[in-house]
Design goal:
Length: 546
């Protein structure tokens, strides 16, 4: 039997648009001789739907849309993900389900058992878990249909499991000889390799073929990489979808051969592709056509503008230089050169007069006080006001340009450089910003050398450098990675890297003190195992032990 994996990019709650994709891919697969096609988890409504599932009309639309898909895909069996009503006594109104569509109707329904509640996942909030799962026969196979997390609890792979029950093991013990998995598995650096290793372990342990179709595209902060897979019973890849784009791939379930499409390789290439896809879909799915980026001449805004140009096209990017009293001519020249290299519109709006008017208005109240970070922040907030004015006037979304290192320690200004609708590189540490910029320039010399080579500076006072306030970024990023992603103590971090303990403690205090800023920041695109945002939930009013 020829099986197809329909790797599509759904939009949450766009039932007509999602159905059109599913029907189109199914018809193409049918014309190519496939007897079965799989679509991702919750592909009918898009993932993650979050609290939309609490609306009865949303649940009704799921059922109506699936019935429409079934009616329009006769001649090929279709497996797709949807929301279904749960039993009244469960306390939750809906379940995360998968439907097998055959001959114009729903022939089989299976619901998810393992509901993740870690990192960005909060499915126990929205769904009731299935109490059991069953096999379904198809073309001589006993198919074990699982939904994403159901396959992530194999005792042969994980040293520490999150659940006491393994749905895959139960289905295999019941006689399953072919595992299907429909997923919405978000991307982070290293995730594709982990996912492949895990699924290959299942294939080898149970000596069964494994097919996994994964969602692709960006939904809010999450990017889904696709990279759908089919494996033989030895864990060898027999079919594979592209990364970061829609794809339709086939494999033969008997001969165990199929399409192996090229994937994006390497950390820098993968991170960059994820950021472009996440930006493109966030802008498009939120209904915007144009974006605005403040161009300082520095490396962060340069990388953000480059990603934006690739995401939405240079004709839809407006770069705005906003020099102030301490801006260097080199920075202005680098901003203009970047815009020319990218082919984007560039405007120059000087903030010096605005800054002076603020100082004059505040002069009486500030009398007797020395200038400090207050005056620096006024410059940043003047720039933020201009960007938001342009956003309002032209209906374009502002992309903020702060990186993860700055956001981590609060080296950013509320209502200033933090303004915007999307924080494109907020999950990109400063050291990775440089690596990505060099990656871009290796194929297209877009980012000016001045932006790459000059010491990082906010240019908010004479001679200012980031190093005046922060440790070297190589040191800072190592501390942040250990503290944020590994939850290591200051003592452990200092000992493992040979850092001064007082320095590590100072960085940790800065991280904790900046929580109130991060919870007011624009959503960012997740590319690391632990990003700021709703996947990292810490209290603001707290005194954590450092």
């Amino acid at each position: 039997m020829k099986i197809a994996l329909g790797q599509i990019n759904p939009t949450v709650a766009d039932f007509s648009g999602n159905a059109a994709k599913i029907i189109d891919f199914a018809r193409r697969a049918k014309s190519d001789g496939a007897g079965l096609i799989l679509f991702p988890e919750l592909s009918v409504c898009g993932y993650p739907p979050r609290d939309l599932v609490e609306r009865p009309s949303f649940v009704t639309h799921n059922r109506q849309t699936v019935e429409q898909i079934a009616a329009e895909t006769r001649g090929i069996a279709v497996i797709c993900g949807l929301v279904t009503p749960a039993a009244a006594h469960t306390g939750k109104s809906v379940m995360n389900s998968a439907a097998l569509l055959q001959d114009g109707k729903i022939a089989f329904l299976q619901s998810k058992m393992l509901l993740p509640t870690y990192d960005v996942f909060d499915e126990m909030r929205n769904f009731a878990p299935a109490k059991n799962q069953t096999l379904f026969p198809f073309c001589g196979w006993q198919m074990a249909l699982t939904i994403c997390e159901d396959a992530w609890n194999d005792k042969h792979f994980w040293n520490k499991r999150l659940y006491t029950f393994d749905p895959v093991e139960a289905l295999m013990q019941a006689g399953g000889n072919f595992m299907l998995n429909i997923s919405a598995s978000p991307f982070w650096l290293g995730k594709r390799e982990l996912r492949l290793d895990m699924l290959a372990t299942i294939a080898r342990n149970y000596k069964v073929p494994v097919a996994m179709v994964n969602q692709v595209g960006g939904n809010d902060s999450l990017v889904f990489d696709g990279s759908s897979l089919a494996l033989d019973p030895n864990g060898n890849v027999i079919a594979q979808g592209k990364s970061f784009e829609e794809d339709l791939i086939y494999f033969d379930s008997t001969q165990l051969r199929g399409d192996v499409h090229e994937q994006t390789a390497g950390a820098e290439a993968s991170a960059y592709a994820a950021l472009v896809l996440g930006t493109r879909d966030y802008v498009r799915k939120c209904g915007f056509k144009q974006v605005i980026v403040g161009l300082s001449g520095g490396i962060d805004s340069a990388l953000t503008a480059t990603i934006a140009a690739d995401a939405v096209g240079p004709e839809n990017v407006i770069g705005v230089g906003m020099p102030g009293p301490y801006s260097s001519q080199g920075s202005i020249d680098d901003a203009r050169a970047l815009a020319n290299n990218l082919g984007i519109r560039f405007e120059l709006l000087c903030i010096t007069e605005i800054f002076e008017s603020y100082r004059k208005s505040l002069g009486k109240m500030f009398a007797g006080h020395k200038e400090d970070v207050t005056e620096e922040n006024i410059q940043s907030r003047a720039r933020g006001t201009l960007l938001m004015a342009l956003s309002n006037k032209f209906g374009a979304i502002v992309l903020s340009t702060g990186n993860k290192s700055e956001l981590g320690v609060g080296y950013c200004t509320l209502y200033g450089d933090m303004v915007g609708g999307l924080a494109v590189i907020s999950d990109v540490p400063k050291t990775l910003v440089y690596r990505l910029s060099h990656y871009v320039n290796a194929t297209r010399p877009l980012i000016p050398q001045g932006s790459l080579e000059k010491p990082p500076s906010a240019e908010l006072r004479p001679g200012q450098k980031d190093s005046d306030s922060l440790p070297p970024y190589e040191v800072l990023d190592a501390i942040l990675e250990d503290y944020l992603e590994e939850s290591r103590t200051a003592e452990q971090i200092a000992a493992s890297h040979g850092f001064d303990l007082s320095l590590v403690r100072r960085v940790v205090r800065m991280v904790n003190a900046a929580e109130y800023k991060r919870q007011q920041a624009a959503p960012g695109i997740k590319i690391s195992p632990k990003a700021f945002g709703y996947g990292r939930r810490f209290p603001i009013a707290a005194k954590p032990d450092v």
